[in-house]
Design brief:
Blueprint: H1 2-18, E1 23-29, E2 35-41, H2 61-68, E3 81-86, E4 98-102, E5 108-113, H3 118-121, E6 122-124, E7 134-136, H4 140-143, E8 146-147, H5 150-156, H6 163-175, H7 179-198, H8 201-204, E9 217-220, E10 223-231, E11 236-244, E12 249-255, H9 257-275, H10 291-302, E13 319-323, E14 329-333, E15 340-344, E16 347-349
Parallel strand pairs: 3-8, 13-15
Antiparallel strand pairs: 1-2, 3-4, 4-5, 6-7, 9-10, 10-11, 11-12, 13-14, 15-16
Amino acid sequence: MADHTQHQDAVKKIAALIKEIDFGMLTTVDAEGRLNSRPMSANKKVEFDGDVWFFTYGESVKVHQIEAKPRPSKLPTFTGHDLALVDRSGALDLYGEQLRAVAADNAVVIDGACAAEWPDLVAESRPGATASRPFLRALGPDRGAYRVGPVAQLRVATHLSTAVAESARERWAVAMGGAEWARAVVALHAAEVIQDLLSRPDVVGECLVAPVVPGRVVSGGSAKVVTGWVDGVRGLLVHTYRVADEGRLTDATITTPTAQNEGWLAALLLAAASDHYISAKSIEAQPPAGLMGTMEAAVREADPCLPCSSLPVGRMGLKLKVIDEPGNTASQWSSTNTSTITGGRAGTALGPGGV
């Protein structure tokens, strides 16, 4: 009875909120697995009981898309480690001083590490490259693969410190939600933290005073190594600088979320190609049904810092080349922009600027 009453109260609240809104967005899925959204007028003559009614012609594209029930994009489960910053209680802390790493089986492999320890914890498979393929030193390049970003943040943190976002995180965990849902949860958490900060007189007052925190400096031979980090929208961003005794900067390494997630993205794209049987022996004029939609889903899941990542769903304009074993282009499927996926029987090559 209590649940029914709560539901009725929620329906009344939503009805009041949308009373003056004439348009809503109806979203369907096409044969490629892409989301198609369009504004439609809600029928206000039908009393709102929890359902919003849209009327259209029976032969319209949107009706056919609803009836077709296209196959959803299926991405492989990540089997590496997740890295994120937390506070001493284990809560997500985007400006945190402690690093935690969790394996796919939820085993904690790094806990409480500070920024000064970063150079000893993480190494690069391809030092200096844009796609440097960093890994956990203790586990090696193969077993030490990891990712960062919203999914990693929610998996690594034991909880969120804000009430509404924590409730959303719990639902995300139960439903085993993906990256887009995780991004929304972390953004909600950040908004709640900002709201709390704006309510504090010591933050919005006339005179702001911040304590000076000494930088973390670790001696390394004749040079000093300084590391700083922040956990952002796309994940962990790390800057490491090496300074000689006379104060001269001798080396700088910037480890971006995109570089850390490049290996994960490559694996997602390879799995998408394999799932749709891409090979130089079976070339069609058009890509297999669902392939490009799955490729888009892979890019959005890893969310690299590339222009195509922020384009509307179904508008990435990915370009895919199928390469035979001698290295010749056997076929090419393309659309409107220059993002490129290159693959073939001998393997798939993924590089910067060509997702």
